[in-house]
Amino acid sequence: MDYKLIALDMDDTLLTSEKVVSTHNKEAIEKALKKGIKIVLCSGRTHNAVVNYAKNLGINGPDQYMITNGGAIIENMIGEIVFQRTMSNQFYRKFVKFVKENELDYNVVDNQGNTYTSGQGLLDKYTIMQAYENDNGLYLKEPDQLPDDFEIVKAIINGNGNKLDDISEMVHEKFDKDYFVVRTGLGFLEIFPKDVNKGQAIKALTSKLNIDLDSVIAMGDRDNDIPMLKLVGKGVAMGNALPDVKAASDFVTSDNNHSGVGLAIEKFAL
User: Which of 57, 103, 212, 219 is the most buried (most CB within 10 A)?
Assistant: First the structure.
């Protein structure tokens, strides 16, 4: 198969546990780019937390793209937005009411990558960690302190693994009907618009570029990667991926700390 686009999740896929790109991965990506294959970083992270990785890999220019915020935003590498979906102020208020009633830690992110949470009590470590990663503002604001047209790209409930396990069913029951609810990593249970996920973003981008989905490779490790892994021609799970992710994939490569991305690119695309 002559693959034309490779979509890569970042955390625990492209990146090692130390949040760096291995030399092997970088070299394989450089070879794929030289061959004319588009490399698309496809992450739950915001713009600022993705763009420098992309540029350091040589992913540049108006004809290269990245997908951020779990599929809510697609932009090219000169910052032009080609797709964006947000959630309404009404939903934002409903979400904050829900987390407060259930005494949950939370944050929400706007389309500029700013992080917002309530200013009551201590901030949980996951909100601080995410705001730092987003490399943008962290604002302690209540819904009434923000404009009536304030909208968000995602809402996040934070907590350790056991906490999120305990509340996951309740959150799904509350929001599944109208929204996409998914665990995106340790400490993060995220809510997106119903039709926003990495798979739908890949579908929108390939349609724009007139690329057949069978000519796409996607790689990932967690539940939020499953929609794109099942959709494309070759879905690749990392060796460290969750069991459901491996089951949804066509191939299992090495883990993120042993250049599984580079090995898969060499096997299928070079």
Answer: 219
